[in-house]
């Protein structure tokens, strides 16, 4: 059975997968989560964070073909990791995540979306190195359907998000294109518009796009359902 590596989105860390890892174990899957540079317990200064560094951290965490699962912002570094070393990435799974357009940055793709639901919640630091989310808005934007205690837990762990990696364009070639891809669209998402998720996954093969009726945080809202979905996707590898 192929292992899974779980990669968090903006301002989050490995901690956001706390309920999914045991749910995946119950499905018979081995999964690990990592902190990207400058997130969670990783000591990298935010000013030193780079998109390529995110991708290298992903590759450093795997030594054999692995299913790499990316949430939200992580769609960019998991794609770059596949471009850099497709032999180590057995499959990419985007969980309500950005699917890069070659030559575009995440910041550009966010602005190109049909709506900007996160814009009112973003707070740019004075030095413009990082941004954070307004604590008063995180429940509505990320966790509105999550169990009691989720907002308090997340608020204690959310960190400032480095700006530069999100302003860095990614160049993708056939190396990235050679890796199988799946997309899990979250239909109640208030961070990345569900219709934009549908657009980003429009070129995926038939049967490689599925939905979950959750917010932007299915790892808290429906960890067992997410784990079961990932199991079915992993089984599709044969």
From TrEMBL:
Q: Which GO terms describe its molecular function?
A: methyl indole-3-acetate esterase activity; methyl jasmonate esterase activity
**From which residue to which does the signal peptide run?**
none
The record places domain AB hydrolase-1 at 4-228
Quick check: keyword ATP-binding in the entry? no
Q: Which UniProt keywords apply?
A: Hydrolase
User: Which SUPFAM superfamilies does the UniProt record give?
Assistant: alpha/beta-Hydrolases
Q: Does this UniProt record's set of keywords contain Nucleotidyltransferase?
A: no
Judging by the UniProt lineage, the source's domain of life is Bacteria
| Any matching Pfam family | Abhydrolase_6
- InterPro entries (alphabetical): AB_hydrolase_1, AB_hydrolase_fold, MES/HNL
PANTHER family, alphabetized: AB HYDROLASE-1 DOMAIN-CONTAINING PROTEIN, METHYLESTERASE FAMILY MEMBER
- Provide the protein name: Alpha/beta fold hydrolase
Q: Which organism is it from?
A: Aliigemmobacter aestuarii
